[in-house]
Amino acid sequence: MAQLKIIALALIALQLSLAPIAGAAEMPASYSLGGQYLEQGKFEEAYTELHKAFLQEPGHPDLNFQLGRAAFETGRFEEAIMAYERVLLADPEAQRVKLELARAYMQMGSREVAKQYFKEVLATNPPEQVWKNIEKFLASIEESEQKHFINGTFTLGHAWDDNARSAPVSDRISAGLFEFQLTGQSASPQSDQINNTTLVLNHIYKNEEYPFMWKTAATSYNSLYQSLYDLDINYLGLTSGPVFQQDTFIWDVQALVSHIDVEHDRYQGAFGAASSLTYFFSKNIMGTIGIKAEEKNNYDDPDKDALNLMLSAGPVLLIDQNRLSLLFSKENENADNAVNSYNRFGWKLRYDRSLPYDFAAFASLGYTVTDYDAQHPFFSVYRSDDIQELTAGVSRLLWQDTAKNQALIMQLAHTYTNSESNIDLYTYRKNVTELNLTVSF
């Protein structure tokens, strides 16, 4: 629709650059009145009066041209085409009429016919401004007919983590009536710096013959620790499936597969399906709901092989430069060994605010509670974890090319994590500060 608006605006300029069609002698009064309404932008009234005149003088070229304009502006595109065609019967070389016909055929979705009329006008060597405008029209038609789209993002990041292994707050761990001393690398917090990269590539296939698009997304994430090499992670993910989009909603259904390496060794593979729906209640309020099912295969520990089910939903509120979102999630993981099975509930509240000079600020508060299905074999209790996360940050748009949908964004964020568990081993604190540079294309 944006392309059609551009064409409509450009054609208004063409109306000023091309000579009007010559009028005839005596015409009904409704013809003159309709012309006045047309110039005043009262298109419905213009159509009514011009149609009255047409019933009396159906073969008059200038009347049919004016009627075509009024019909077009009131959404009667088929009537507009018929009116312009009657003008061409009287004057096959009327270039102005061919331009208006191209405009009407564009609205009807007949791009090939529209291109043919544009090319016929080009062949007459029109004035330079007309020629340039037609070239823009043809370029926009080619773009609108494009079926394959590729876009993505690449992020380069550096993070500082003061507790990379999520070590407990104390190396003295209680187990019932007993206490024991932790030893080894996870006995106390270890800080480290992490270099990470994230690449997301999207391919969209759009076929207007069907009411959906097909989207495929590939994700690659790599994090390399400067000292704790055994924590290095490589992740590969692929999703593919149809996307249904209307004015009030976007709904996608996707198959998914993923693979994770830890320190370059196979750690976990997964496959499954997911679906999400975003519904626009108004220009300021929308809601999202998603569901995902994954079969996880843990290569090092078969007891952790599991079926994971997740459901999420929440509202999003947009007011001027402010965005407020709340997301609830419910997760169930059914592992081969019940010790690793759990139920998890969580929520996350996030606020974003656009600021002057291309800056933006954001903050979020999250909470999750996880209850495990079986007693821990060593601590003889049903493990239960409560985790709170607080994040705040700022970002800035460094560069943008709107014509090519390209941008460069820098982001600085800090996250504080507080984990409380009924098993001391899983009670920890963590601070992570991350600086990211993202290019979108």
Report on the structure:
This protein has helices at about 1-15, 30-40, 45-55, 60-75, 75-90, 95-105, 110-120, 130-145; strands at about 150-160, 170-175, 180, 190-205, 215-225, 235-245, 250-260, 265-280, 285-300, 305-320, 320-335, 340-355, 360-375, 380-400, 405-420, 430-440. By secondary structure, the chain is an alpha+beta fold. It folds into two domains: about 1-145, Serine Threonine Protein Phosphatase 5, Tetratricopeptide repeat (Alpha Horseshoe), CATH 1.25.40; about 150-440, Porin (Beta Barrel), CATH 2.40.160.60. The strands form two sheets. It has a 14-stranded antiparallel beta barrel. A two-stranded antiparallel sheet has the order 2-3. Strand 7 (about 250-260) and strand 8 form a beta hairpin. Helix 2 packs antiparallel against helix 3 and helix 3 runs antiparallel to helix 4. The longest helix has 17 residues, at about 130-145. It is elongated and about 110 Å long. Residues about 1-25 have low confidence and may be disordered.
Main features:
single chain, 441 residues, alpha+beta, Serine Threonine Protein Phosphatase 5, Tetratricopeptide repeat, 2 domains, two-stranded antiparallel sheet, elongated
CATH-wise, what's the superfamily of the largest domain? Outer membrane protein transport protein (OMPP1/FadL/TodX)
User: If you compute it from the alpha carbons, what radius of gyration comes out, rounded to the nearest whole angstrom?
Assistant: 32 Å
CATH class of the largest domain: Mainly Beta
For the terminal residues, how far apart are their CA atoms?
A: 22 Å
Secondary structure class reads alpha+beta
How are helices and strands ordered from N to C?
A: HHHHHHHHEEEEEEEEEEEEEEEE
Strands across the major sheet, in which order?
A: 1-4-5-6-7-8-9-10-11-12-13-14-15-16
Mean pLDDT across all amino acids: 89
Number of helices: 8
CATH architecture classification name of the largest domain: Beta Barrel
Low-pLDDT windows of residues: 1-25
What is the count of β-strands?
16
Which term fits the overall shape?
elongated
Q: Give the strand content.
A: over 45%
Report the sheet with the most strands, covering strand number, pairing sense and barrel closure.
14 strands, antiparallel, barrel
